[in-house]
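Hi F.,

I've been meaning to write this up properly since the lab meeting, where we talked about keeping a consistent format for the predictions we share between groups. The idea is simple: the sequence comes first, exactly as it goes in, then the structure tokens exactly as they come out, then a line or two of notes. No screenshots and no reformatting. I'm using this chain as the first example so we have something concrete to point to.
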Amino acid sequence: MAIFSRIYRIFQANISAKKGNKSNIDNSFYEWYTDNKGTRPRQSNNTRPRQPRNPEMAKYYANLEIPYGADLETARKSWKRLLRKYHPDLHSDDTEKIKIANEIVQGLNLAYKEIEKHYKSQNT
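Output, unedited:
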């Protein structure tokens, strides 16, 4: 059942990115970030400035279930955690689940590759 709920969340994030709307993931991050008061907390001098949203990159962050603009180490940890959870070998009983798991793993690999490429291009 977790596979289907994951597919639904990815689908929802892709649809909302195309429409330009905030997804549920963005809303939960916004609520956490603003402490539900609508004001941003003070930033110390050592934090990065917030990046403008790129809808393509937002899809990749949503696919890895991390907030937009998270660092590369967080992306890597999330990527590994999700690969362990949705690996096709874990669903070897049902061929339909294996196909779905393969698609999910391919999407996770693509998302991590794109985020990694984005960070490397920013740092060079």
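Notes:
The chain has one domain: 2-38+53-123.
The longest helix spans residues 95-123.

If this format works for you, I'll send the rest the same way.

G.
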